[in-house]
Amino acid sequence: MKERRNYYRILQVQPDAQPEIIQGSYRALMKELQRHPDLGGSTEGAVLLNEAYATLMDPEKRAAYDDRMFQKSIAGDTRFMPKGSTPPPCPVCGAKVSRPPKSGEFCMYCHTPLRSDHDIEVVDDGRRTVSRMKSSAPLEYHPAWPGTPRQGRMLDFSPKGLRFLCHEELTAGTVLKISSPLLEASGAVTNLSEVAETTEGRKSYAVGVRFLAVHFADTRGTFFSTSA
Questions:
Q1: Considering only CA atoms, which of 213, 195, 217 is closest in space to residue 204?
Q2: Full residue range of the structural domain in which residue 142 is found
Q3: What is residue 34's predicted lDDT score, i.e. its pLDDT?
């Protein structure tokens, strides 16, 4: 049967939403927003909500649904790809991709960008054409997927990467899923240094990350470039 509806959109949740978030949104839509027929909602709308809820709250049904939706979202013409080659999988969860992703496309499984918004040019002497921007925005990162997100605080960022503070001694090469009000990204840890800052006796580390793919919430006026 063809998938004609997006259950995540119907329930107004993200594809990586935990069961309690799905349950809370379902209850709010049925009661507070009066989608239930007894409260003035349409029978068809209630049926769709129940259908979406039953699917996403069942681990096996949700996994099967996610697989169908993921394949649908990335399906495309692969005739112009080099023979025998395939695009790299999602760097965070390892989901397979059937064609090179476009800017703005996210992994259906872990909701991580599959391709950066844009590439940054580099001047002839190898220096960055864009300066790092300081920021103290909070962020969440996943050192493994799925898993519980860890908390951190950004130090600075650029189109190529960022630095953030955390209480975990991460290993170089570890791939992270990163979420903040400024950006969504996947990145590889490049360096780690202990800093003097401590919180309740816990050590703090400054972590350098190189983006593998990044989507900025708003790039207007954030960066500037110069020609060589």
A1: 195
A2: 87-228
A3: 56
- In which band, very low, low, confident or very high, does the pLDDT at 157 lie, cut at 50, 70 and 90? very high
Supply the pLDDT for residue 75. Answer: 45
Residue 110, C-beta contacts closer than 8 angstroms, at least 6 positions apart:
15, 16, 90, 92, 93, 95, 145, 146, 177
The token pair that represents 93 in the structure block: 């969860």
pTM above 0.70, yes or no: no
pLDDT computed for residue 31 by the predictor: 75
176-146-199-187 Cα dihedral, nearest 10 degrees: 10
Given 52, 74, 96, the domain boundary residue is 74
CATH of the domain at 68: 1.10.287.110
Classify residue 2: in a domain, yes or no: no
**Cβ count within 10 A of residue 52:** 23
On whether both 15 and 107 belong to a single domain, the answer is no
